[in-house]
Specification:
The chain is of the alpha+beta class and about 300 residues long. It has three domains: about 15-100, no CATH class; about 105-190, Translation factors (Elongation Factor Tu (Ef-tu), domain 3, Beta Barrel); about 195-300, Translation factors (Elongation Factor Tu (Ef-tu), domain 3). The protein is about 20% helix and about 35% strand. It has four helices and 21 strands. The strands form five sheets. Strands 3, 4, 5, 6, 7, 8, 9 and 10 form an eight-stranded antiparallel sheet that branches. Helix 1 runs antiparallel to helix 2 (about 40-55) and helix 2 (about 40-55) runs antiparallel to helix 4. The longest helix is centred in the N-terminal third of the chain and has 20 residues, at about 15-35.
């Protein structure tokens, strides 16, 4: 087949179907990663985009599939300027990389594993999903909110011990010391601590048909911990017409977006949402009905 545009060399034009095939594959796999919690898949997609942008389309599997399988069968599509697709790939790389926080070690404890069997009579592991950072044996760790300190003795999975655990992986962490750790606690890097806060300011989306007002009581579900909270003040609500924050009348209606200050009965360990999406987000639950009534992103905490 005679091609008008070189598929693997950057020129001024490209077959318009190639970047669309790549974007469709990347989009579908990204949705799969978000739905399943397979953050390692996002890391692989980001790596492939980075290599494709720096080395060329020969390392882009979706592009190779298009050029070697689909294009010979269906023919070359209309040509287009190659610069917009390249810019779109740069944006995609930035978005994918932003979802992976490998700097801030965060591990919400979901379950304490005590087999109580003769073969594992002294086994005590803490199971959950990595919310940030890379976890290895030998890493120092602090348990929040208690403040107890220890060291990671081992990192286990269902398939056995591993050397490194990255965001999104479901693992079990064993500690070198016998410290008090329970569901809802957060393991973190002692040199890079989240905020253990009783007062949190967050941008909230209210999702209940029943309006909420100042001084209302709700449950805040943050990672694996649920605590009672009171809405101290609804500071502002977004004007949908101008997208600006306007002073609140003291209540939020269905689908309102606003800034809300909470006072919590117990202090969870939180990060700003801009820093860590897992430890910076929460949902609001009605105390009486257990209905999910809102979702929030932490802006500030103290």
């Amino acid at each position: 087949m005679q091609r008008r545009a070189d598929p693997y060399r950057d020129t001024g034009v490209i077959d318009s179907r190639a970047p669309r095939t790549n974007q469709a594959v990347i989009g579908a796999l990204s949705l799969l990663a978000v739905a399943t919690g397979w953050w390692w898949l996002l890391a692989l997609l980001a790596l492939q985009l980075a290599l494709g942008l720096s080395i060329g389309r020969r390392v882009c599997l979706a592009c190779v599939f298009y050029f070697e399988v689909l294009q010979p069968r269906f023919g070359e599509g209309p040509l287009e300027d190659s610069r917009p697709p390249r810019a779109a790939n740069v944006v995609g790389l930035v978005v994918l990389a932003a979802d992976l926080n490998v700097a801030d070690r965060r591990f919400p404890v979901q379950w304490v594993i005590r087999p109580m069997a003769d073969d594992h009579h002294d086994y005590r592991g803490y199971a959950g999903q990595v919310a940030g950072g890379t976890w290895r044996a030998g890493d120092p760790v602090v348990v929040l909110p208690s403040g107890h300190r220890s060291t990671v003795a081992a990192v286990d999975t269902a398939d056995g011990p591993i050397d490194d655990a990255i965001p999104g992986q479901s693992i079990t962490i064993l500690l070198a010391d016998d410290v008090d750790v329970s569901r809802g606690d957060l393991l973190a890097d002692p040199d890079d601590l989240p905020v253990v806060a009783r007062e949190v300011t967050a941008r909230v989306c209210w999702m209940s048909e029943r309006p909420v007002e100042d001084r209302a009581r709700v449950l805040v579900k943050h990672t694996t911990r649920t605590v009672a909270a009171r809405i101290d003040e609804i500071v502002s609500v977004v004007d949908i017409a101008t997208l600006e924050d306007t002073p609140s009348p003291g209540k939020m209606e269905l689908n309102d977006l606003g800034v809300v200050r909470f006072r919590l009965a117990e202090p969870p360990a939180v990060d700003r949402y801009a820093q860590n999406r897992a430890t910076g987000a929460f949902i609001l639950v009605d105390e009486a009905t257990n209905e999910t009534v809102g979702a929030g992103m932490v802006v500030d905490a103290s």
